[in-house]
Write a structure and sequence with these properties.
With 260 residues, the protein is α/β, with parallel strands linked by helices. It is 32% helix and 16% strand. It has one domain (2-253): 3-Layer(aba) Sandwich (Rossmann fold), CATH 3.40.50. It is built from eight helices and ten strands. The longest helix has 18 residues, at 9-26. The relative contact order is 0.18. This is Glucosamine-6-phosphate deaminase.
């Protein structure tokens, strides 16, 4: 996979935003897969700034959701639908009609998961999927030992992931125990995967995903199988990469027109 090391989180956000902007110029109605959490916020902020400056037209863009909590009431501020609408859809000037996501409140969760996979395919597939990585190497909510061929399904969150997400809730007890998530196989269907990681806490997971063996213990290592996967990391998140100098030199020598 392609690894790009940037100075800090802001630089990473701007680089990924430029990549998305370039995609929208080539394909105005591109389907963009978005992630939640604090890591991708600089991407959304930089992209929204380009939209406000009329540097890119996002009016025809479509947005799809990576995952969703199970059991949160409709409109809950920490449901991922609410987060995506607040942090991505509204700042880009889009409407809810441009947005699609899995239904975490459906009576038949299994059927809702199958419906979402089918809807993604019928929409023409995801053009660019933005990903984060958990401290245990998960992507989406595909926790360690998830099947590398998995499709959208319900998953039980690990204690570590619930602790990591507790900062978004008033109490750790409020963090749901289950989520609907795109499976690793579903994620790998996207045409371009962009994983963004910042901070020293992600360094071990990044190193295992990029340089370690392909393993269900590190779900993000599945990106090694993708024909167009880009990992953007700041210096802190790159601190445990053995080939960091090689990655820096490779990206520095890459023609500007080639992009990510």
């Amino acid at each position: 996979m392609e690894v790009v090391i940037v100075q800090d989180a802001v630089a990473g956000g701007e680089l990924v935003a430029e990549t998305i902007a370039a995609l929208l110029k080539r394909k105005p109605d591109a389907l963009l897969g978005v992630a939640t959490g604090s890591t991708p916020l600089p991407v959304y902020q930089a992209l929204a700034a380009q939209v406000r400056a009329s540097a890119v037209d996002a009016s025809r863009a479509r947005i799809c959701q990576l995952d969703e909590y199970v059991g949160l009431p409709a409109g809950h501020p920490e449901s991922y639908r609410s987060v995506v609408l607040r942090e991505v859809v509204e700042p880009l000037g889009l409407t809810e009609e441009s947005f699609m996501g899995p239904d975490g409140s459906a009576e038949d969760i299994a059927a809702a998961c199958a419906d979402y996979d089918r809807a993604l395919a019928e929409a023409g597939g995801v053009d660019l999927q933005l990903l984060g990585i958990g401290t245990d190497g998960h992507i989406g909510f595909n926790e360690p030992c998830s099947s590398l061929a998995s499709r959208t399904r319900i998953k039980t969150l690990t204690k570590q992931t619930r602790e990591d997400n507790a900062r978004f809730f008033d109490s750790p007890d409020e963090v749901p125990h289950h989520v609907v998530t795109q499976g690793i196989g579903t994620i790998l269907d996207a045409r371009h995967l962009v994983l963004l990681a910042t901070g020293e806490a992600k360094a071990e997971a990044v190193a295992l995903a990029v340089e370690g063996p392909l393993s269900a213990l590190v779900p993000a290592s599945a990106l090694q199988m993708h024909p167009h996967a880009t990992v953007v990391v700041d210096e802190a998140a790159a601190s445990k990469l053995k080939l960091a100098d090689y990655f820096r030199a490779t990206y520095a020598a890459k023609p500007v027109w080639q992009g990510l």
